[in-house]
Amino acid sequence: MGRDGKAARFEELLIPHLDSAYNLARWLSRDDHDAQDIVQEAFARAFRYFDSYQPGNARAWLLKIVRNSYYSWLSKRQGEPVLTAFDPSCEPAWLAESADAPWPQPPESPESLLQKLDDVTRVREGLAGLADNYREVMVLREIEGLSYREIADVAEIPIGTVMSRLARARKQLQQDLAGHAQGQEVCDEL
Amino acid sequence: MNCDQARALMHADIDHELDPRSSHELNAHVARCEGCTDAYRNLQATRDALRDPALRYRAPEGLARELRMRLGTDSSQHSTRRWRQPMLALAAGVAFAAVIGLAVILQIPMGSRTVLPVSEMIDAHVHSLMADHLTDVASSDRHTVKPWFNSRVDFSPEVRDLTTDGYPLVGGRLEYTRQRTAVALVYRHRQHIINLMIWPETAAGDKSRQAFAARGYNVFTWNSRGMRYWAISDLNAPELEEFTRLVNAKP
Q1: Which tens digits make up the pLDDT trace of B184-229?
Q2: How many angstroms separate the CA atoms of B199 and B153, rounded?
């Protein structure tokens, strides 16, 4: 098929997901201009890989490329392989050699959490303040509405990790919103 | 169902990812548990708040047009800037095949002592793949490999047989790293070689489990039962993680 045919097919399949691509890039990079650069790069890569694309879930395929483009961009920008905070991943039960970590208590004043949730500015700040690996699963789930399986594919993590990371991310967000300034939770059972 | 289980499952439940039976049990528990009712409501409220359309960014007006120009499908303007080169120059040596799966490089927490070792581990792994460097003792039988280390290192590493799980043992060798002699066990999964480095690390050592992806390889490290482990491979992260679970499963 000629190049024009490929370009037309590519456009028809992927331009409809431009908002999703930009949304993810914008939440990851937290900057408008950078997000545009990342989306440009992602689409360039997607076009190059388009021949290997298997018909299926175009949006998830594109979002995976966007996510990888973000981390490449981040890596180049900082010059060294020092990047986003990684969730030490308490999920695998076999690593919990100490006692099971107790579930965090719900925020002490539920009213104040609900009040904060009503304020979209605070919610936006709270979400933007999460570590990259928490923020990305939250955006993919809560804003892009991806299923756990799709999130697992885009973020390249097992499905079990999707659920537990979402659980931690939500708790972190709730704690941040309710004003419990505890910093990023670190898995301390290891 | 107890509260621990309920608190874990309610996330999947609000995401409609829970099977009907578990969902039923969960709701039965929540109905009679005040703490879980509060937690569930907070969760719903959090989810609902995140549905606010103001939180969803839309692509700026010019972006679609610019993309179309590069594709050449925008007939209103002929563009010479086609996608022959990536817009952001990639560092030399970053293979495109690696980009999709392995462009993620994860941060090492400030003050961690693991920065250098990641690179060292990858170096050691790559070096081992060269001819004649992979094993000092080549055997798929752990009863041959394990005793081979007895007279050569002052600790006794556990050597698992993971053949039925799809990770046959290839052999072992001595590895000199971090100013001490370590054990390297070599496993294989399909065509991928996995190096498992092991050395004693006291309980006072850094217990954190970490994972990294760099230079086309995946790396996991953890501390368990007095030993520090590093697993390095070009195998994808989920299957390498599965390997680490098998290695660390209680005997």
Answers
A1: 999 999 889 999 999 988 754 555 678 888 778 889 988 888 888 9
A2: 9
Among chain B residues, CA nearest to A113: B42
Provide ipTM, 2 decimals: 0.81
Tell me, yes or no, if B46 comes closer than 8 A to chain A by beta carbon.
Answer: yes
Yes or no: say if A107 and A126 are a contact pair by the CB < 8 Å rule.
no
Is the model's pTM score more than 0.80? no
Q: Which two tokens stand for residue B211?
A: 């994972």
B246 touches chain A (CB under 8 A): no
Which of A39, A92, A123 faces B52 most closely, judged by CB atoms? A123
Cβ pair A2, A33 in contact under 8 A: no
Q: In whole angstroms, what is the distance from residue B234 CA to residue A132 CA?
A: 24
Residue A113 with chain B: CB contacts under 8 Å = 42, 45
How many CA atoms, within 13 angstroms, populate the side-chain half-sphere of residue B90? 22
Contact assessment for residue B59 and residue A22, using Cβ atoms and an 8 Å cutoff: yes
Q: Which residues of chain A have pLDDT under 50?
A: 80-105, 107, 181-190
Q: What is the DSSP string of A95-133?
A: G--SSPPPPPPPPS-HHHHHHHHH-HHHHHHHHHTS-HH
Place of tokens 């388009």: A50
